[in-house]
Amino acid sequence: MTESNLTEKITAMRDNMEKTGVNTDALNTVLKHQADKINNDNETEQARKSTLASIMNNNKVDYRFSEFSQKMSQSYDNIIQYAKDAKSKHIELSFIKENVNKMFNELKEAYFDNVDFQLEKIEQDKKLFSENYQPKNPYDNPLVELLKRQDFKANLESISKTNFDNYIDNLDFNKLSNYEINLLIAKGRSFESPNTNKIYAFKLEKNRLKPYQNTETWKTLISNEHQLNALKLQKQQNRINRIQVATKSGKIRSIDFDVQHILNQI
């Protein structure tokens, strides 16, 4: 039963009570509370969807193509240009090398500080996404949930042992709550139905696999997290002579931090 169905029922009750001269103030209060709650639920739902959309948009870009990566590429070019200009002015190579090495170290430090920052952000986004993927309080209206459960239980109790397996075959388990799944399992066991194992297996799978983990957004978050952790490991192992960044044109380039090799090339 939906919120609107419940409201229609209450409205019908009010009309009948008015016809018989019964005071409807209390019922009007219930209706107003119901309307306020529906409006609040709609606002909450919009906020939830906005959070999910924001997480999706902020994480769909490969880290190498991020705006920060493009700035890294430009900063690297600026350092190379400094080295070229200094060399053309016949500045002592040892002095150029010292300065370039210092600038490279600062650039690398900024790069890996940002890797750590992005990993922290992904961790926060994973938490937000898992919390907001489904409405936080599916049973905000206990009366709606109670009536829904009563309807399901009454329908289930009316099914004979002979018709139970056919009833199960026509159910979409994905649309059922845990409460409904548990009722089906109990009923199947009382009927000694072979379908009971199928229902129980679905319950175990549903509880094991969290639905948000099968979304493209979650997979992207995990993919980006793996990529960033690989870069972090690269730093920890002191293998950071070369990293991949993006140019403004959107192409990937490798930048080299081997100062001597660069000085030999310019």
Give the total of beta strands: 2
Unreliable residue stretches: none
The order of strands across the largest sheet is: 1-2
Largest sheet: 2 strands, antiparallel
Number of H- or I-type helical stretches: 10
Radius of gyration: 31 Å
**Helix/strand-derived class?**
mainly alpha
Distance between the termini: 75 Å
- Beta-strand residue fraction: under 5%
Q: Which of globular, elongated, flat, extended, rod-shaped describes the shape?
A: elongated
Topology as a string of helices (H) and strands (E):
HHHHHHHHHEEH
Instruction: Provide mean pLDDT, rounded.
Output: 80
**Fraction of residues in helix:** over 70%
SSE map:
Elements: H1 3-19, H2 25-59, H3 67-88, H4 93-132, H5 142-157, H6 161-169, H7 178-191, H8 195-208, H9 216-236, E1 242-246, E2 252-256, H10 259-265
Task: Describe this entry's structure for a reader.
- There is one protein chain.
- This protein has a two-stranded antiparallel sheet with strand order 1-2.
- With 266 residues, the chain is mainly alpha-helical.
- The N and C termini lie far apart (75 Å).
- The chain is built from ten helices and two strands; from the N terminus they run αααααααααββα.
- The model has no long low-confidence stretch (mean pLDDT 80).
- Helix 2 (25-59) packs antiparallel against helix 4 (93-132), helix 3 packs antiparallel against helix 4 (93-132) and helix 7 runs antiparallel to helix 8.
